[in-house]
Amino acid sequence: GTKCPSGCRMQGLIDEKDQEFSHRIDKIKKLFSDNQNNYKKSNQIIVETVNVLKPNLDSAQQLDETYGRLSGELRRRIVTLKQRVVTQVNRIKALQSSIQEQVVEMKRLEVDIDIKIRACKGTCARSFDYKVDKESYDNIQKQLAQANSINMHPELQETTLSTLKMRPLKDSNVPDHFKHKPLPEMQALNIINNIKQMEVVLERPETDAKPSRGDSSYHT
């Protein structure tokens, strides 16, 4: 290689290393430029993807809110309907009991009339051919017994409906490295932070000891 004035080869080694470092720097510059271009392309793809997803995310959020509102309204109506059913069931049972008492009283009165007519020695005995229709009363009693044996769903008075609750999802379990703010050129990702993270939970009342297979929770 090139020799310095003293005759050593130091200058040649310096030139050789300088050239080697220059190649390395050029290679690093090229890699940096390539990565920078890839980064810009990736950022552009992310922005375009976010712009496509945003309407769907907004729509999904609105659907979640509507679902929560409608499920609450549906539960309220079901509870009201259940209360009406229970009221009607109790009223039917009261009517069945009243009818049965009236039938017994009617049969007792007819038997009393029959006894009095039979005991009469005057014109009543000759004027009336009175006979108690016991078979008809027996049939009525059987029909009433069958009606009383029908299950009127008494469990409606004991069971309670689960409650669907939607509440903000806590982020305490989210790793810290997912919480950093995006770079300025990645501000498009901020829309994700504007989407409410909701947790949907189906809760059963504490008084209901039996767990339901429907009890569940999911995130949206």
TrEMBL record:
The keyword Coiled coil is annotated on this UniProt entry: yes
Task: Describe the location of the Fibrinogen alpha/beta/gamma chain coiled coil domain by residue ranges.
Answer: 1-132
Q: Which UniProt keywords apply?
A: Blood coagulation, Coiled coil, Disulfide bond, Hemostasis, Secreted
* One BP annotation, GO: protein polymerization
Give the InterPro entries listed for this entry: FIB_ANG-like, Fibrinogen_a/b/g_coil_dom
Give one GO molecular function term. extracellular matrix structural constituent
Q: Which domain of life is it from?
A: Eukaryota
GO cellular component labels: fibrinogen complex
Gene3D superfamilies xrefs: 1.20.5.50
Q: Where in the cell is it found?
A: Secreted
**Assembly:** Heterohexamer; disulfide linked. Contains 2 sets of 3 non-identical chains (alpha, beta and gamma). The 2 heterotrimers are in head to head conformation with the N-termini in a small central domain.
Under which name does UniProt file this protein?
FIBA protein
